[in-house]
Amino acid sequence: MPLLQAHNLFKTYRLGRVPVPVLRGVSLSVEKGEFLAVLGASGSGKSTLLHLLGGLDTPDAEPRGRIEFDGKDIAAGNLDGYRATSVGFVFQFYHLLPELTVLGNVLLAPMIARGPLGYLGSKAVAKAKATEVLAAVGLAHRLTHRPAELSGGERQRVAIARALMNDPPLLLADEPTGNLDRATGEKIMDELLAIRRARGLTMVVVTHDAEIAAKADRQIRLTDGRM
Ligand code: ADP
Ligand code: MG
Question: Does residue 22's CB lie within 6 angstroms of at least one atom of ligand 1?
């Protein structure tokens, strides 16, 4: 059973009046529970594809492609809800808010999913859960620190905790170890694999690291805008 399917995705950026075609008819299918690695040269459109799959950006309207999650077109439904609760996103450069503590960064996920009032009504539960998720990634002793006080690996663990806070069935990770030294990157990747096993997550990881890709169930490569 596929959890995520993309049909004929096109994405063209525009630099002034010059069209820059990046994706030119990408189709793929990710099974429930699968770990799929997406490879490709720098600039081949890996991040673009992942942003489309996560509902962070939309494909070209013409020709019209489609992304289905659990058999439903994500563009036809509530895209905010899809982003907030169906997908966890991990970026290469963490994208943490520097003013917030580790706990505060992770609590942004339920705040966005539930809205300010819904969040206030369940704040104690959310805090307890954030503390638990952060402990699971080895950061129980770092709750009140700010991102600037953490190492790269620790920052990425905060981002992973944030991505898991709303219990999404799908985790999308864009070069999650790309900004880390090899040993730390390997450790983070092994932790992600353990989390995936424990939660039965479906995972799509963009990487240009062959060793990381080798841990996946399946590898696909983006070349010239196609799979
Ligand atoms: P990858 O992640 O594989 O390195 P990207 O998806 O980031 O590739 O980018 C693919 C191509 O699209 C690159 O040539 C990049 O310069 C271009 N690109 C990405 N984002 C934009 C944008 N917002 N506007 C214009 N061009 C972009
Ligand atoms: Mg990229």
Answer: yes
Instruction: Name 128's Cβ contacts closer than 8 Å, sequence gap at least 6.
Output: none
Closest by CA position to 24, among listed 3, 49, 4, 41: 49
Closest CA to 6 of 77, 86, 65: 65
Q: How far is the CA of 44 from the centre of ligand 1 (A)?
A: 8
CATH numeric code, 33-46+79-219: 3.40.50.300
Nearest to 54 by CA among 178, 156, 190, 205: 205
Residues 90, 77: contact at Cβ < 8 Å? no
The predicted model gives 117-125 an average pLDDT of 93
pLDDT tens string 198-219: 999 999 999 988 999 999 999 9
User: pTM to 2 decimals?
Assistant: 0.96
Q: Which pair of structure tokens corresponds to residue 209?
A: 């690291």
- Residue 81 CA to ligand 1 centre (angstroms): 26
What count of residues does the chain have?
227
Domain extents for the chain? 33-46+79-219
